[in-house]
Amino acid sequence: LYKSFRFGNLFDLVMLDARSQRTEDPENITYGATLSADEHYVFGETQRSWMLNELQTSQDDGVQWRILGTDDNFGQSAPPAALAGDVFFGTDNIEGYDAERQIILDYIVDNGITNIV
After folding, report:
1. Does residue 13 sit in helix, strand or coil?
2. Do residues 45 and 101 make contact, with C-beta atoms less than 8 angstroms apart?
């Protein structure tokens, strides 16, 4: 259910499946932050590795932009205190899967992958 498409050297569109492989949502965002990517994930190890490889290949091939397509928001809410105790995106989005999202972000930074939308 995941696939990538190359549009010349302008951009690669990396479509992700953020629903069929995911584990249950955590009870709350704080509890979700305590779980590892092995026990609590959106993409799972196979799809995550594929996605990171697609991003690295795109960067290595000199493609200008890398666009991630998913039905979930990859962003991070402001701290709950700034939002009167609420979270903006919540536990049903990638924000609720801290460990896996951090693995992805660390890989992107550590490997100098740029221009990701």
Report:
1. strand
2. no
Structure token pair of residue 85:
């105790």
Q: Is 0.90 topped by the overall pTM?
A: no
Higher-pLDDT residue of 19 and 44 is 44
H or E stretch covering 72: none
Residue 38 vs residues 17, 18, 21, 89: alpha-carbon distances, Å: 17, 16, 12, 22
pLDDT tens digits for range 103-112: 899 999 999 9
User: Structure tokens of 35?
Assistant: 């779980």
- Look up residue 6 and give its amino acid: R
- Both tokens of 54, joined, read 């697609």
For the stretch 29-65, pLDDT in tens is 555 566 666 666 788 889 999 999 999 999 999 999 9
DSSP string covering 22-91? --PPPSSHHHHTTS-TTTS-SSHHHHHHHHHHHHHHHHHTT-SEEEEE-SS----PPPGGGGTT--SS-T
